[in-house]
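input
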Amino acid sequence: MDLKREIDLALTRRQFFGLASKGIGIGALASLLNGNVATGSPSQTGQTPGGGVPGLPHFPPKAKRVIFLHQSGGPSQVDLFDYKPALVRFQGSELPASVRMGQRITGMTSGQAKLPVASSIFKFSQHGQSGAWLSELLPHIANIVDDIAIIKTVNTDAINHDPAITFIQTGFQQPGRPSMGSWVTYGLGTENQNLPAFIVLISQAEAINADQPLFSRLWSSGFLPSSYQGVRFRSGSDPVLYLQDPPGINKTSRRQMLDAVSKLNNIAGEDYGDPEVATRIAQYEMAYRMQTSVPDLMDLSKESDATFEMYGPDSRKAGTYAANCLLARRLAERGVRFIQLYHRGWDQHNDLPRDLALQCNGTDQPTAALIRDLKQRGLLDDTLVIWGGEFGRTVYCQGKLTEANYGRDHHPRCFAMWLAGGGIKRGITLGETDDYSYNVVSDPVHIYDLQATILQCLGIDHKRLTFKFQGRHFRLTDIAGEVVTKVLA
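output
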């Protein structure tokens, strides 16, 4: 057996060109295959893992970091933010064809003989100097309503969960694109060398009915270098798997092992020219530093009783939404660039009055506490907080409609989200929907517009943050998106 020949045959196409790049004349070939490699474009070669793109931010940012409170499943705007008193008159009547206008509906209600209008069972009232209408289910958010900007006219192209949540997180309905957190950390890098720039926290539903699954590709780096993918922190004593040293290994031997592995990886990097080797080296070093930084982050013993009281009793229970909101503030204090919370359980196709009340009971107080906590610590001014799901809920009932119970199907045409913090006007409500909360009447905000606005707050022109992949310059907002200037401070 010829070992050298076997190694040569094992070379991949990427490895071949990596080796060949040392030869004369490969520059011309590289310019044909990928102009960025030949010209040294910063979007491809001018970075070190976690370092950000040279020249970014494009203009002075209002926000340095993002906390995205994604409410997975689709909260009902009709029952929370979009007050429609006229629906009481239409209760139980068929959704007019003039309102639906032939728009598609999901297979879960397309077979129903009727699409009866269901007004909200919950009471609404106005709050704050802004006079914003909010459901009785949100008493704590009502207390901070003058610090947030509510958008009632967000709309999306997707009608089912997986494409919709993929769309709002990555700008594309099909998997494979980088997540928003990856785009942001790729562009801006990190402010903390001892923690990942993009961290994900997940909490389970308070609702009784089954909730939607979440997949790790939602925080994937896609075709960006893998150093920009989100790192999920778990609850319990081992928040990052395989981070701690195994029995019998001390810090000295761990350091010696990492130094030896780094030398081997550097040799491999020189031989094969694969940028992922540099990522691997950086990840080993990050894991080593995280052995100290993560236990300190997760140790809540130094938090005051007043803080726990503000976030609610669940904030002492690891893995709950309340505890994750408290951790989000601690991550923001430590300069983590993008903090993604996913909370499951908002998919109320039936038993909505019961399950929506349970969801709000578990999320309303800690969400408001996070805004108050950031504000009192001087962090809200440069932290952008986002709250919302992947779509809204229909005004018509799914299943049997009774006086005390109803369900709602998916509704992508209009739904509510809110923003707060760096770069966002305080105490405003943007957009109007029709009397059925079914169609946008004024100030539509598409998902691409939302993404463009988020990047704008971070000092990024969404049209200029691109990455060349397979011959095309990709961006988070694809070929669309307009900044929503009406919500900007």
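quick obs: The two ends are 70 Å apart (CA to CA).
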